[in-house]
Amino acid sequence: MTARPYTSVWNDLNQVEFSQSFLQAGPYRTRYLHAGDPSKPALLLLHGITGHAEAYVRNLAAHAEHFSVWAIDFIGHGYSSKPDHPLEIPHYLDQIDHVLDALGVRSASFSGESLGGWVTARYAQTRPHRVDRIVLNTMGGTMANPKVMERLYTLSMEAAKDPSWERVKARLEWLMADPAMVTDDLIRTRQAIFQQPGWLKACEMNMALQDLDTRKRNMLSDDDLRAIQAEALVIWTTKDPSGPVDEGERITSLIPNARLAVIENCGHWPQYEDAATFNRIHLDFLLGRDGEQP
Question: What is the pTM of this model?
Answer without folding.
Answer: 0.96
